[in-house]
Design a protein that fits this description.
Layout (H helix, E strand, L loop, with lengths): L2 E6 L24 E5 L12 H12 L3 E4 L18 H11 L8 E5 L4 E3 L3 H11 L3 E6 L21 E10 H8 L10 H9 L9 E6 L2 E6 L8 E3 L5 H7 L7 E2 L3 E2 L18 E8 L6 H9 L8 E7 L5 H11 L5 E5 L7 H13 L4 E8 L2 E3 L4 H8 L3 E4 L11 E2 L1 E2 L5 E2 L4 H6 L1 E3 L2 E2 L3 E4 L1 E2 L2 E5 H5 L15 H11 L4 E4 L5 E3 L21 H8 L4 H6 L4 E4 L2 E5 L3 H14 L23 E3 L6 H19 L9 E9 L7 E4 L5 E6 L7 E3 L2 E3 L4 E3 L6 E6 L6 E3 L2 E4 L1 E8 L2
Parallel strand pairs: 1-2, 1-3, 2-4, 13-14, 13-16, 14-15, 18-27
Antiparallel strand pairs: 4-7, 5-10, 6-7, 8-9, 11-12, 16-26, 17-28, 18-26, 19-25, 20-21, 22-23, 24-27, 29-30, 30-38, 31-32, 32-41, 33-39, 34-38, 34-41, 35-40, 36-37, 36-39
Helix pairs in contact: 7-8
Length: 723
């Protein structure tokens, strides 16, 4: 048996590398006592960062005992992004070694913010013994901080050539001797100190992927085909360590899925005291479809409104009526509202800083919930779920239907832009294997559109006033870069279905109800907004009535769709005169004229064809077996009937194979009378239901007439399909 004591080193910006190199395979011998030293520093932030907690979790998993040096000391070791720096580590390590007298004691010295253990002390000691050296350092590809020393480094047959000070292991007497010459300042470079020892002949003593084993996850160095005991990511590989840390040690496995997702939760159910106060930041930075629906979903969040404060930033004059209507009816329900409108001319980056300040400066604020208006928040429990997961920074995964696009990136390219991680598709689709569900919490380098941040994090790590500012990066990328630099982990969760993100690229604002035109760009949202809730039962359950022979009646439009079509046509206003001469149609003559507006007059013909093809054609083919339609039309229009204008329509055939007639308003409420009579069958439909479609043959068999509207105004949408 042996005892393991570990003293941890946390530093501001640690060097990072995967530790399994040929010169540093961490192949150690079993010794009676293993002491691993690491120094804790706190460079103007809390010591226990997400990275340090991850480090402790992996150490605990493998039964390492942690001892921390330097806790509470102000970090004076410099900025690790540029030399000098790190000398404070050497001083603290040298001091700690003075009390160690045993000659056979082995010391492991590693960074922590960017380190995870992949195996236990037994394997660590065994691999050290196999290295057959008294002191073994990690190795790096790049020389740092003095590139002029490159020629003095010995050449190696394989592996990395240059020393890395982020991790080394050796016998206590040898480490003491190595550190005996240290007399530098805390701000001097530890890397340079150790490098000069290494290149002195008299003193000289990522290629990583996941490997899933039965009941265990390891990091595998594919370059050297080895299994590291410790994985350390430095410099450009810091993101790789975050990726590996989603799995190692055994945080996510095929057999169990996520093993830590239910740890350190903050349950809200049964909460005796009041819910935490949340500032919700709503950002409207461009013309966006379905903004009215966004506010409807915001209202439906399952969270007490008296514990919510709203910060609304609207850069678009087009959306002022939507914001104004929402606040007019609901502002009083919330604890407070701050609105920044387009007339204030505040740029988007500044607006987000102002939103953060609203939370930072409010002593009661516990969380800031940032939502862009293009987010479709389907899950009413989203805010509760994120709070209960109890992370400093967490985002719900959002996607775009039918695409692999999401609001997070799994990796970054060398220039800081999008790159696909090995597990990205698995996370998006929720599966890592066909039989294995891939759900969990994932530490990622970039999130956008929607996220939750603890107010304490905004007041400490993310207290800088210009988090979204950058001369080279977009605001969202600049923000994520600064969050990463501060050591705050950005988690995304796919454990629930939360919603989606709208496409805004081709959204036009030249109509009254522009959302009607979104059937191509955002078909899922369009369907939810405009297609009747019972339409799916038409095909699945046969929810089709036949009020007259071969006349089929089924629900297709919502009340909102009917209302928007009517208002769009009235807004356009160019109703035909109802005469036989009609220059809009081929030949210029209409036998049975109506007062109407054609779909192509308002630029809606392509969208209307898409609607007929997707929602009418399947019903046609079901009810008229053997007939196949491409839903082509020459005439599709909205008709208006008024007692003092055109109350009725004389008997006629339609210029179609079949006709679709959709009632757009409600008999008995909006008008009296009306309906359709099929003369051959002496059968009338006199109580048309709003949003329901009548489908009937157009020629030969179904000679019909429009019955008189005696009061009010009646609107119908008519399509002559397959003329």
């Amino acid at each position: 048996m042996f005892t393991v004591t570990y003293t941890a080193l946390q530093e501001n910006k640690a060097q990072c590398i995967a530790y399994d190199r040929r010169r540093f395979s961490l192949d150690l011998v079993l010794i009676s006592f293993l002491l691993c030293l690491e120094i804790l520093s706190d460079p103007h932030r809390r010591a226990e960062t997400d990275g340090f907690r991850r480090f402790l979790r992996s150490a605990k998993h493998f039964n390492y005992t942690i001892r921390v040096l330097g806790k509470g000391e102000t970090w004076k070791g410099g900025d690790y992004m540029s030399p000098p720096g790190g000398g404070q580590k050497v001083r603290l390590l040298k001091s700690a070694l003075e009390d160690i007298q045993e000659e056979n004691k082995v010391i492991l010295f590693v960074d922590s913010y960017d380190v995870i253990f992949s195996s236990g002390p037994k394997e660590l000691l065994k691999k050290f013994q196999q290295a057959k050296h008294r002191v073994v350092f990690s190795a790096e590809t790049l020389i740092w901080p003095d590139r002029h020393l490159e020629d003095k480094h010995p050449h190696v047959r394989e592996g990395k050539r240059f020393l890395g000070a982020g991790g080394f292991i050796g016998y206590a007497p040898n480490l003491k001797q190595m550190l005996s010459d240290w007399s530098g300042a805390d701000s001097d470079s530890d890397q340079l100190f150790f490098t000069k020892i290494y290149i002195n002949p008299e003193k000289r003593v990522n290629e990583v992927m996941l490997k899933f084993e039965d009941g265990r996850v390891r990091a595998r160095n594919v370059l050297y085909d080895t299994l590291p005991v410790i994985v350390h990511g430095n410099g450009p590989t810091k993101l790789q360590i975050n990726y590996l840390g989603n799995y190692i040690p055994n945080l996510w496995m095929f057999e169990t899925g996520c093993t830590i997702c239910n740890e350190d939760l903050r349950p809200l159910s049964g909460l005796q005291s009041e819910y935490p106060v949340v500032v919700i930041g709503i950002f409207i930075q461009q013309p966006t479809p379905f903004v009215t629906v966004f506010f409807e979903r915001l209202l439906n969040l399952k969270y007490p409104k008296n514990r919510l404060r709203l910060f609304i930033y609207n850069q678009e004059y087009h959306h002022e009526p939507h914001v104004r209507t929402f606040l007019e009816y609901h502002e009083s329900e919330y604890q407070g509202v701050k609105l920044i409108g387009p007339e204030e001319d505040i740029d988007p980056e500044t607006s987000r800083d102002i939103g953060f300040d609203m939370c930072r400066e409010d002593i009661d604020c516990v969380y800031f919930f940032s939502i862009d208006v293009d987010v479709v928040l389907k899950n009413r429990d989203t805010l509760r779920i994120l709070i209960e997961l109890n992370k400093p920074f967490i985002a719900p995964m959002m996607s775009k239907p039918g695409r692999l696009w999401t609001n997070f990136w799994g990796a970054l390219s060398a220039d800081g832009y999008y790159a696909r991680s090995e597990d990205y598709v698995d996370i998006v689709q929720g599966r890592r294997r066909v039989e294995c569900i891939s759900l969990g919490l994932w530490n990622v380098p970039y999130v956008s559109n929607i996220f939750l941040i603890k107010a304490d994090t905004l007041r400490t790590d993310l207290k800088d006033p210009d988090l979204f500012e950058s001369e080279t990066l977009d605001a969202d990328m600049a923000f994520c870069s600064k969050v990463r630099d501060k050591g705050v982990f950005m988690f995304v969760t796919n454990m629930h279905t939360f919603g989606r993100v709208l496409s805004t690229e081709n959204y036009q604002t030249n109509h009254l109800h522009n959302d009607l035109w979104q059937i191509f760009e955002n078909p899922v949202e369009w369907e939810e907004r405009y297609i009747h809730e019972n339409y799916s039962k038409v095909l699945k359950d046969g929810l089709i009535e036949m009020p007259c022979p071969d006349v089929y009646w089924f629900p297709v439009f919502t009340d909102v769709a009917c209302k928007h079509l009517i208002e769009e046509m009235e807004h356009f206003g160019q109703w035909s005169g109802g005469g036989n001469v009609d220059k809009r149609i081929q030949g210029g003559y209409e036998n049975v004229p109506t007062i109407d507006i054609h779909m192509n007059q308002v630029g809606y013909d392509k969208e209307w064809h898409k609607f007929l093809l997707d929602y009418v054609a399947p019903v046609t083919e079901k009810m008229y077996p053997g007939y196949f339609t491409r839903a082509q039309f020459d005439l599709a229009f909205v008709v208006r009937y008024k007692p003092d204008e055109q109350p009725a329509l004389s008997p006629h055939h339609d210029a179609s194979t079949f006709t679709i007639n959709i009632a757009l308003n409600q008999v008995g409420v909006d008008y009296q009378g009306g309906g359709c009579r099929f003369l051959r069958y002496n059968c009338s439909v006199t109580a048309p239901r709003r949003g329901w479609a009548l489908m009937h043959p157009g020629r030969l068999t179904h000679y019909h007439e429009g019955l008189p509207t005696v009061e009010g105004v009646r609107y119908i949408s008519v399509s002559f399909v397959d003329p």
